[in-house]
Amino acid sequence: MAETPTSVRGMNDLLPPESAKWQHLERTCRELFARFGYAEVRPPVVEHTDLFVRGVGEGSDIVGKEMYTFRDRSDRSLTLRPELTAGLARAYIEHSMAAKEAVTRWWSLGPVFRYEAINTGRYRQFYQIDCETYGVGEPTLDAEVIAMLHALYTQLQVAPLTILVNNVGKGDDRARYREALVTFLTPHTEALCADCKRRLATNPLRVLDCKVDRCQAIVVTAPSVLDHLGDAARDHFERVQATLAEMGVPFTVEPRLVRGLDYYTGTVFEITTTAGDLGSQSTIVAGGRYDDMIGELGGPATPAIGFGIGVERTILCMPGEASSYLTPVGVFIAAHGAPARRRATALAHRLRRAGIAVEVEHREVGMKAQFRRADKLGARLSLALGEAELASGEGQLKDMATRTEHPVVLAELVATVQRLLA
Ligand code: ATP
Ligand code: MG
């Protein structure tokens, strides 16, 4: 006998009631992002491998060891997207957005793929929600983006929140810092983990981001990138902080925050939380400025800033049982006998068309069992239909919490239910 199929390691099924919590997160994002002017974009899940090599960067862990890359039947090298920013940048360029509007605000949501060690909050297929803004280089936008995330997580009741901000510099500032960091790290080479030994040569800033304890111990005394910023970057960072302060958004400057992707220039940020017991996976959203990417990918030089929300991690931090996010059943209709079931189906249809969530029992089961199901579903009201109700055209709507009964004329069911549920 053939083996029963199972899912791929690190790639999970999302089932109810968990999916209700996801829908709440997605709905909250949709509404909030719309108020900030973001419009939704859905790029493909697969892109040319080269996009990520150039966009995410050869020195990144993602490109170095985490991508799902394969050859298609025409021998093209394709990759399941490991993040959303590069694909959105590609779309921005491909659709000549810079020529169409001065400022573009896009958001997107979907699965991304990384081959990494599985843990709580660390999977091989996971979801990200991204916002990207193109065409604005001003520090007030950086603050606005961070403040939007603060508003989002506050609305989702994720607490406590720590908002970490830093400026990683660009161009000459970055080069000078890189040099200072290499000078500092080189005497410690032997003590670094194997990954960091490699990073020291390819992408030394990434050593600051390493999660291995002995690397963390070394970098506590590393030089600060903030001491290597030129006047322009320092001024930009100060304005970001002043704007956040004026908005009343709490934040902490973390000079060792660098982010794992190569493309960041200037402002970077992360939000972490102890809610959800995520351990070293406590970063629930991360982002920053990447003013050079659009130009480097062949588009017109365009400043940009964005972030990626880790959906699974955010879900783990949102309070309450997943089932508490389900849409409650408004009315459960229990029916006895074929004519009553027909009537129940018609009444349910009328209620649902009026916007009320209804469950109707289609199976021939005893009334006791039907009411047990109504309770299990958390129905607010129930209605029993049998021969007597069909004959009189009247019934009783039972409030399932208080067990009180309200007489109802079946012809006026919609109005009565609306009144009782209000
Ligand atoms: P980490 O340092 O935890 O590996 P990262 O720097 O690789 O994170 P980003 O590329 O910035 O993460 O992705 C944005 C967000 O996506 C992260 O802050 C995190 O919440 C989430 N995330 C990253 N990798 C995973 C994963 N393998 N499984 C689930 N969520 C993830
Ligand atoms: Mg990672």
In short:
Helices cover 38% and strands 21% of the residues.
Structure description:
The protein has 422 residues and is an alpha+beta fold. The chain has helices spanning 18-35, 49-55, 61-66, 85-94, 97-100, 139-155, 171-185, 194-202, 213-219, 231-247, 293-296, 311-317, 338-353, 367-376, 387-392, 413-421, and strands at 39-40, 46-48, 68-71, 77-80, 104-113, 125-134, 161-167, 252-253, 267-273, 283-289, 304-310, 331-335, 358-360, 381-385, 394-399, 405-409. The chain contains 16 helices and 16 strands. The strands form 3 sheets. An 8-stranded mixed β-sheet has the order 1-5-6-11-10-9-7-8. The protein has a 5-stranded mixed β-sheet with strand order 13-12-14-15-16, with helices on both faces. Helix 1 (18-35) runs antiparallel to helix 6 and helix 6 packs parallel to helix 10. The protein is elongated, with a radius of gyration of 27 Å. The mean pLDDT is 95. Bound molecules: adenosine-5'-triphosphate (ATP) and magnesium ion. Magnesium ion binds at residues 61, 260.
| Fraction in beta strands | 15-25%
Described by strand count, sense and barrel closure, the largest sheet is:
8 strands, mixed
List low-confidence stretches. none
Strand order in space, largest sheet: 1-5-6-11-10-9-7-8
Small molecules held by this entry: adenosine-5'-triphosphate, magnesium ion
- Give the helix level as a range of percent: 25-40%
Q: Total number of helical segments? A: 16
Structural category is: alpha+beta
**Total number of β-strand segments?**
16
Shape: elongated
**How much is the average pLDDT?**
95
Distance from first to last alpha carbon:
56 Å
The radius of gyration over CA amounts to 27 Å
